[in-house]
Each structure stands twice: as structure tokens, then as C-alpha cells.
Amino acid sequence: MTRIGFIGLGMMGRPMAHLLHAAGLSLVVRDANPDAAAGFAAEHAGVAVAQDAAAFSGCDAVITMLPNSDIVDAVVRELAPHLRRGACVIEMSSADPVRTRALAALLAERGVALIDAPVSGGVKKAVNGTLAIMVGGDAAVFAPHRPLLERMGQAITHVGPVGAGHALKALNNYVSAAALIATAEAIHAGTAFGIDPATIVDVINASTGKNNTTENKAHQFMLNGAFNSGFSLLLQAKDVGIAAALGESLQVPMALAQQVSALTSEASRRLGPGADHTELYRFVAPA
């Protein structure tokens, strides 16, 4: 692989693209905010800034790291006529798996492959290149692109056909959101009973209730009121909604997912688009 496209230089995309550049790969970048792309190029020698979709025509692979399926659809459909046969789109956003399959079919008509490779681990792991990456797509397409993904992550798992990565990412984020809500409620209840909040978290971490929130979010972003983990509540609500909708479409009962989806969506609506997902802690606090 000699030339890689990277679209989406936000909080996650920028450090991921940085790692690819540090590995010596030739990059063409684009972002909805032209200043973000220009700034990245200014700090990374040899990076080209794409002015339009045609600028990606010479790329062997194009990585997309975007906020939602609407934007992914628009970007990939714009790219499609310009990508060369044999190229591959690596869709690393958190997107709707059903729509991912539709995009894969559209690209296949043009001789272009697609694998979905969403990530988990947040900004910290994006910076140090230790993301978990769950990949959906043909194994024969995934194999030659694995070294590229290894520049950005460590736990890289091929989980099934196209769309499977996005499906599993949504399900993972549902489980994570449910654990955050349960943790927040437990802290508030224990505090009301007279137990120190920090002690509650420490004891849970030494017990069977330990989870990602108690280990990596409660002390760091919630109890101290920082609420700046880097992952928005808006995106969390979107991901949980995808998981709940997936269960419904497959006729798999997911009653708790529906409740978590409703709560995260309402919290996002009330707290606003800039809210961090750890602010669910204060949203579920007793009045």
C-alpha cells in the first residue's frame, strides 16, 4: 500500500492519522472543517489536503472516521465514482450495519471493496495506538489491510461479514452505556445512604461489579466533575440507538437496550450536543 486517504480528523481521527504518518505512509486527508485538514498537513510533512473526492482516485485505501451514518453515506457515495478498481474503503466510524451493507454493495459494483472496522478505547488509546478494532468484511479483503489497522490498534479481530464490525461496536457501546448508568445510580444510592462516593467506586473495583466505568471513568471524569472524557453523549446515544434498532430488526428482545436508548437520548437532548457521555452521572442524580 503506497497511498492512503483519511477522511475525518476529529478527536479520534486526528491521532489515528498521525500514527499512519509516523509509520511512513503517504496520506491524503480531508475534513468537513478545512482548517483541521490544513492544520494537520502543516504539522505533518508530505501530507496532501484533498480539495474534492477526485483527490482520492490514486489511493489504495481510504479510511473514513465520521460522526454518523448520514455523513458516512454522503461521503462514500461521493467517493465511489472516483475510486480505482481494487481499492478499499475502511469505514471506521460507528455506523448503522444495515446501511454499511448497502454501501458495500454499491462499491462492489465498481470493483471497490469495503470493510467496516470501528474502534473502541477512546481518545487515549487512539493517541497511543492501542485501540480495539472489530472488523467486518471478506476475510480475503481484511488480510492485506491488517498491517494498516495494526498501526492504529492492538486488539484487532475479524468478527464476521460486512456490517458485523459496526453491529458489534453498537452492541459494545450499549453494554458500556448500561454499565455507566448502573454505576452512576449505585454511587448516588450509596452516597444517599452515607457512604463516601470514592469508597463506593474503590469497593466495586475490588468486587464483581467492576466495569470500564468504575475503572476508567468514575474517579477520572465523574466524581471530580470534570466530565471531559472526549466521547460525547450525543454519539453514545446514537450508538445505543443503533443497537436497540438492530435487536428490533432481528426480532431479538432487548428491553434494557430500549430503556438505555431512551434515557441516553433524553439526556443528550436536555444536556445539549456538547455534553460528554460521563455527564449521565449528573443526569441520573437525585433531584
Describe this structure in words.
With 287 residues, the chain is α/β, with parallel strands linked by helices. It folds into two domains: 3-161, NAD(P)-binding Rossmann-like Domain (Rossmann fold, 3-Layer(aba) Sandwich), CATH 3.40.50; 167-283, N-(1-d-carboxylethyl)-l-norvaline Dehydrogenase, domain 2 (Orthogonal Bundle). Helices cover 52% and strands 14% of the residues. The chain is built from 13 helices and nine strands. It has helices at residues 13-22, 34-43, 69-79, 97-108, 122-128, 139-150, 164-192, 197-205, 212-216, 218-222, 233-249, 255-271, 280-283; strands at residues 3-7, 26-30, 48-49, 61-64, 88-91, 113-116, 119-120, 131-136, 153-160. The protein has a six-stranded parallel sheet with strand order 3-2-1-4-5-6, sandwiched between helices. Strands 7-8-9 form a three-stranded mixed sheet. Helix 7 (164-192) crosses helix 11 (233-249). The mean pLDDT is 97.
CATH names the topology of the largest domain as: Rossmann fold
Strand line-up of the largest beta sheet: 3-2-1-4-5-6
What share of the residues does DSSP label as strand, in percent?
A: 5-15%
Shape: globular
Helical stretch tally:
13
Fourth-tier CATH superfamily name of the largest domain? NAD(P)-binding Rossmann-like Domain
Secondary structure: number of strands = 9
Structural class: alpha/beta
The percent range for helix content is 40-55%
CATH top level of the largest domain is Alpha Beta
